[in-house]
Structure formats: C-alpha cells, structure tokens
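ARCHIVE CARD
Drawer: 12
Card no.: 0347
Subject: one protein chain, sequence and derived structure
Cross-reference: see card 0346
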Amino acid sequence: MFKKILVAYDGSESSERALVEALDLARAVQAQVIVLAIAEIPFGVDSRLEVNGGLETERHHMHKLVKDALKRLKPEGVKLSTEFKVGHPSSVILKMVADGRPDLVVLGDRGHSTLVSMFLGTTAYNVSRKVPCSVLLVK
C-alpha cells in the first residue's frame, strides 16, 4: 500500500479537502504525509529575483496557512513533515516526486488559479500526466 503521501496545499477549499483525505488515508495505512506548500512565482518573473519582498511575503503567508490548517485538523497519529518551496506548482510538485519518491500524490481539483494556468494547464492535469506514482484528485 502507500508508505509516503505527498499532498499539495495552497489554502484553497479544494486543497483543504485534499489534506483531510491524505491525513485520513495515512492514518488508515500508517503512512507518512508530506505537506507541500508552494509560494508561486508570478507569471513573467525570473525565479532568481526577489520582487519587493513579494516572495518572502508569500512564503510567510504559506507557512501560516499550513500551520493554521494543521492546527485545525489535528493530525494525531500521522508521521508528518512540511516542505515550503518557491516556484510554479506543477514544476515544484514534479521535482518533489522525483526527489522524494512518494507512493501517492494528493491534489485538490482546483487551487488558487493564476494566469500561468491559462498557458501551462492546470496543476492537477500536468502532475497526473507526468508522475510515475498514483495520484488522488480530491473534489
């Protein structure tokens, strides 16, 4: 079964449901959960640049979102870790999968969409097509 579950969390209702599902499944199968929060780079901005502290502000915001969600959901009995990354969601998730080799990726069906989605496609679509592991898409 699943030993390591990666769940992408952006604070949206959909990602909240995905986090709940990931935690419930992890309890049932005694799996580890990695909560991945991504400070998204605005479209057209070079990832090496810090634009007026905007990325740092976004990182801080994502830390707070994850902390608040885990406080609400009380993930007792689940081995849990958190990762905070900067980048475009699909790319960051794909790299995390390549590096960490989870057995399952859990995603909400809708996140906080940006203009990038119009050009690159949705995160769920891109990730589900490219990862070598199972994907659970939560509605």
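Annotation on reverse: The CA atoms of residues 65 and 71 lie 10 Å apart. The first helix runs from residue 13 to 29.
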